Amino acid sequence: MTVRNLNKYLFILIVSFLIPSSIFGQSFKISKIEPPNWWVKMKLDTVQLMVYGKNLNGVRVRSKNLIITKITNAQNNSYLFVDVFIPPKLSNGKYTLIFEKNGKMQNILYPILKRSLKPADHLGFNNEDVIYLIFADRFDDGDTTNDHIANPFEQFKPKTLNGRYGGDIQGIIDKLDYLKNLGVTALWITPLLENNMWMSYHGYAATNLYKIDPRFGSNKLYKKLVYLAHKKGLKIILDHVSNHIGINHPWIKNLPFDNWINGTVKKHLHANNNKIAFIDIHGDKTTPKLTERGWFTNYMPDLNQRNPFLAKYLIENTIWWIEYAGIDGIREDTYSYVYQKYEADWAAAILREYPNFNIVGEVWTGNQSFLAKYQKDSFFKRPFNSNLPALIDFAMYDSFTRYLKGKKGLWDIYSNFAKDFVYKNFNNLLLFMDNHDVDRAMYAANNNYKKVKLVLTMLLTTRSIPQIFYGDEIGLNGGGKDGLRRAPFPGGFPNDSLNAFTSKGRTRLQKNIFNFTRRLLHLRKKYPALRKGKFVQFPPEKGIYYYFKIFKNQKILVVINGNKFKSKVDLSDAAYLFGNSKKLINLNTNRLFKIDKDNETIIIEPMHSEIFLLKD
Fold this sequence. Notes:
The chain is of the alpha/beta class. It is built from 16 helices and 26 strands. The strands form six sheets. Strands 9-10-13-14-15-16-17-18 form an eight-stranded parallel β-barrel. Strand 23 and strand 24 form a beta hairpin. Helix 6 packs parallel to helix 7, helix 9 runs antiparallel to helix 10 and helix 12 packs parallel to helix 14.
């Protein structure tokens, strides 16, 4: 070797020591795996692990006990997707996943757990239930220590219209006895996931899909809530969002694939709110794209479920929460804005795992025929079955609202119930008069509480699955703006001047509405006909609307007097339904009425409803 060649060799040798090793063989690092665990004996027994880290391209994975079926490099080398089959006879425990690349290894212990509940223990919800919708931040502050946990993005001061009030999971736990006593049977709670956003109180812009927001509590506390609710006979419904996430989710600055979201932060479509596009047999092909791929707002990136890795991630994430927490049902937010084939696959995967489960989808349209086509096994065929069991009944909400506002009368309510023939299962609709996105019933009725009570009667005694909004039971008012509709429950927060959770703390009007609502709820619990009886209605005449609920040998008559004066109710048209029954027992007063050919009328007080049990 010449001196010149020797110097060249030494130069290369020295430089090789000085240049970072990543140039020749990049080191890798794993920081997180989602889902954080899985379970044995699941129908979904091959789980896709989303591995987070650095320089993960080309990483190989092996395990002694878990079977690696597929490894996929993401477009971004910060992610790796690993499909793992979990043998059904595997014991619960932590199993080692060995990641290796260029002779370097990193071992990760991955937990495989034993299922704590049977699939059938997730009870679902149906027309035997009454759902109570809780807006988490505005219901009750059970733990004031989490009220001021830092969120550097928050732009609203506490206890302002769009700021946080401090309601939390502990607050809901503290009020389980109140809710049980009220007479509801299921709790739909608005999203509790981490929302590190400029406006964080509403919960619908998640920044971590596996973590409860610490301002609400923790994963363990949420699981405790479900357990304690179940002990009191209360079901829990998860408010789930497949459509979008918050702009501050870590994905957004480091996307696994370019098509993980629809468009980009700087360039994207805006949602056009067209719920008809997916089911319009004459529609053009481009219109659904504006609905499916558009962003609600610039701070809510629209997820692209056409990406198969994202689709599977979301399905597994949903099943993880069901299995981890033990919940009973799901309300799916913005259902009609999501890639519909994904939603069908998502629902099918959940119902395959949990046979008694129920899912209700938010399709915000008041047209029954459009709504009906979204329901599972719809009479109106689509290219594929939606697999969505239940729908939120916006058609009847519109009718109730028109009545409350004085725009329409009882005939409008009657005629909209008469359109139920379009639904495959009208009993699996969510019937409501208000919720967190619309003006409260008292606001719509301009504080006419008697009218609100009439709608409450129809809500709880006609058909389907009734849902009331927190505070409806005390006549809570609010409208015009979201922050006003979501007013804090009086007595749920430090220094409140009133405590409407207690009888002594309620105003006279609040007591009136609370006692009325509670009595209705407990009548519904006592009499199966009110919950699941056949609904037989008669056309309203002269401001009077009446209907029967019939279950086996139990017959109940409900009368609505929409007049501002006492009214006689002629029941002669319904004589055939009385059969051998000669008596009516007023279930509100226990007063007895005799009915015969010479006396087929009853008198109802103005703006009043009565419920009668038919007796022989």
